[in-house]
Design a protein that fits this description.
Structural class: alpha+beta
Strand order of the largest sheet: 7-6-5-10
Strand content: 15-25%
Number of strands: 17
Shape: elongated
Largest sheet: 4 strands, mixed
């Protein structure tokens, strides 16, 4: 293990990330005016250039970069999203296009625009793959706190209890809200803020319609007064809400797959659309049952929290393969 791979350096780098940009920026006066800050890099040192590239982006929404399981991710300000090779190379092009380098002249060293070439971008990109600042251990299971996070957070803010919202991180157990952090490794966030006082009158009305005789919040006396048919509808209604909460939590310990059965226009599609908005459209994928049994059928489920199969027909070949795929996606079964 070399110095660059040591955990101590990674933590130190993250703590000093904001300072590194100041240390690498060049500022001087010319003709009585202040020059714009300049980042000075050496063409012959792509590994150090990649370090400066990381330093400028550390902790910044839309710019902080990590590499997890052979894939680059950008921190959006709430969660990490996948960044393909072309996007990362494009960012390196832009970075080098604004950079400067020292060139030897007869008068000594002179600062000139870096003027990157395709080779320069490739060299920095390859060096970036080896930078410890962006590398995240493949053994880390999402969600998780990254190295450099406050150690106490693993105890007081257990990653599995947290939900990244539009502007805060919600602890679903305590109701505590905290500021978003690039140290929180999650690929999923919802598009709304948590409001403990929020109500959903139209959704409750919809549940009244598809579960006739049930109630939004019955009292013990009202429950006792229900007949068998009403109790059955009440259990169905509460089960739907429990399913929504289970999927929102990201908890897979129960290892369950949920099947909504019913006649046409009985509310199944509406429930699926509401669920998609609750979980976040980017976190949900629509699939055909047959896809799960294909060789790479589950590839599109990477970084998704839920797959919705709109029309599951349990017939034809491949039952064993798709049933195994369903079991794997439902929890910890391998």
């Amino acid at each position: 293990m070399n110095d660059y791979e040591s955990t101590a350096e990674v933590v130190e780098f993250q703590a000093r990330a904001a300072m590194l940009y100041e240390e690498t920026a060049y500022e001087a006066k010319k003709e009585g005016k202040k020059k714009q800050r300049r980042v000075i890099v050496k063409r012959s040192e792509p590994f150090n250039t990649a370090r400066t590239f990381c330093a400028q982006r550390a902790g910044k929404a839309g710019r902080a970069l990590i590499r997890y399981r052979n894939t680059f991710y950008l921190w959006t300000g709430t969660h990490y999203r996948k960044a393909d090779t072309e996007e990362v190379r494009r960012e390196i092009w832009r970075f080098l296009a604004k950079a400067w380098t020292n060139v030897k002249t007869d008068q000594g060293l002179e600062e000139r625009p870096f003027n990157p070439s395709h080779t320069d971008v490739t060299n920095v990109f390859d060096a970036l793959l080896a930078r410890p600042e962006v590398e995240v251990s493949n053994q880390l299971a999402v969600p998780a706190w990254l190295p450099g996070a406050i150690p106490e957070w693993n105890r007081t803010r257990r990653p599995g209890d947290l939900l990244a919202c539009k502007s805060k991180i919600l602890n679903m157990i305590t109701g505590e809200l905290s500021e978003p952090s690039p140290y929180f490794l999650t690929m999923n966030a919802v598009e709304y803020d948590y409001d403990p006082e929020a109500t959903a009158p139209r959704f409750q009305q919809f549940l009244d319609e598809i579960f006739p005789g049930s109630m939004a919040d019955p009292t013990p006396e009202q429950r006792d007064a229900m007949d068998d048919a009403q109790r059955d509808m009440q259990r169905r209604r509460e089960l739907v809400l429990e399913i929504f909460g289970y999927l929102l939590s990201g908890d897979l310990r129960q290892q369950k797959i949920f099947l909504f059965m019913g006649k046409k226009r009985s509310g199944k599609g509406t429930l699926a659309r509401v669920l998609k908005q609750l979980l976040g459209p980017e976190n949900v994928i629509g699939m055909d049952l047959e896809e799960i049994g294909e060789t790479f059928g589950m590839e599109d489920m990477i970084d998704k929290t839920t797959a919705i199969i709109g029309d599951a027909r349990l017939e034809g070949r491949g039952r064993t393969s798709w049933s195994r795929g369903c079991c794997r996606s439902a929890g910890r079964t391998r």
